[in-house]
Amino acid sequence: MSLDLTFLGTGTSQGVPVIGCDCAVCRSTDPRDHRTRTSILVRTPDRHFVIDTAPDFRVQCLREGITRLDAALFTHPHTDHIMGFDDMRRFCEMHDSKIPVFASPATMQGLRNTFRYVFDEPQVWKNYLRIDPEEITGPFQLGETTIVPVELPHGRFTTTGYVLHRGGRKLVAYFTDCSGVPGEAVEAAHGAEVLILDTLRETPHPTHMNFEQALEASHSISPGATYLIHLCHEVSHAEKEGALPTGCHLAYDGLSIKVGS
C-alpha cells in the first residue's frame, strides 16, 4: 500500500531565480536552487493525482514525463497554485475523460471565478478541459487512498492541508502555504511517515512559516521524515540542507520518494 511522490515544484510564488535578482541563490548553478512554483504528484497503483496546478504545470509535466492524471486536489485559489489549471486539458484529450477536481467550497468558488469558462460553458470537445468538480466537506477516497482534509491558517485566508492514508497507515501529510499548524492539524498528521511542510525563509513572514516555526511543527507532528517546501531565494539548498536536524530535508524540484515501502 505504498505510494510514490514527486515534487513538481518547491518554490515560492515568484519562483527561483527571481526576475531581476542578482543574489547568490538566483545565480546558483546548483539545480536544487532552481525552484518552480509549488506542486506535487502522487502516484499509487490505482490513482495518479496532483495537489495544485502551478503556473509552471505544463513545464513540470514535460520535465517529469507525466502522461497520466486521474484527479487534481487544490489547497487554495492563489495564483501560484492554480494558474496551470487549463493545462490539464491535455490529459482530458489523451484519455477522453473528465478530471475530478477536489477543493473546499471557498477554493472551488475561487477556481470558478478564475476559470468560469470551464465551469459554466459545456465542454464537449475532446481537447477541451472537462472537469468533475467535487467540493470537500470531509474525508474522501481516491481509489484505495483515504484523504483527510485539514484547515490551515494562511494569514487572513484558510488553506486546505491533506493527510493521505493507505492500508490503515498514515503515509503523508501535505501542509503548504500556512502561517502555523493548529492543534487539530497536528493531531491529524501526527506520526505520518512523511510530512511535507511550508517553510519560506529564516525570518518571520505574516502568511508563511519560517524555519523555526516549521521545525517546531515538525517536532510536534513527529513524522518519520520531513520535507520542507515553498522555499524562497534566500535559501541556499547546499548551505541549509546540512544544517537541518536529522530526518529533515529541503525538497527540490524533481525529487521523487517512495513512501510506505
Task: Describe the structure using short key phrases.
single chain, 8 helices, Metallo-beta-lactamase, Chain A, 22% helix, 261 residues, alpha/beta, 29% strand
3D structure, described in words:
With 261 residues, the chain is an alpha/beta fold. The protein has a single domain (3-259), classed as 4-Layer Sandwich (Metallo-beta-lactamase, Chain A), CATH 3.60.15.10. The protein has helices at 57-64, 79-82, 89-95, 105-114, 116-120, 183-189, 211-221, 237-241; strands spanning 3-9, 39-43, 48-51, 71-73, 99-103, 131-135, 140-142, 145-154, 157-166, 169-175, 194-198, 225-229, 248-250, 256-259. The strands form two sheets. A seven-stranded mixed β-sheet has the order 6-5-4-3-2-1-14. Strands 7-8-9-10-11-12-13 form a seven-stranded mixed β-sheet. 46% of the residues are buried. The model has no long low-confidence stretch (mean pLDDT 97).
How would you summarize what this structure contains?
Helix content is 22%, strand content 29%.
CATH superfamily: Ribonuclease Z/Hydroxyacylglutathione hydrolase-like
Query: How would you spell out the order of helices and strands?
Result: EEEHEHHEHHEEEEEHEHEHEE
CATH classification, class level: Alpha Beta
Which residues sit in consecutive blocks of at least 5 with pLDDT less than 50? none
Query: SS-based structural class?
Result: alpha/beta
Looking at CATH, which topology would you report? Metallo-beta-lactamase, Chain A
Tally of DSSP helical segments? 8
Number of E-state strands: 14
Number of domains in the coordinates? 1
Helix content range: 10-25%
| Biggest sheet overview | 7 strands, mixed
Q: Which second-level CATH architecture applies? A: 4-Layer Sandwich
* Integer average pLDDT: 97
Distance between the termini: 8 Å
Rg is 17 Å
Shape: globular
- Provide the β-strand percentage band: 25-35%
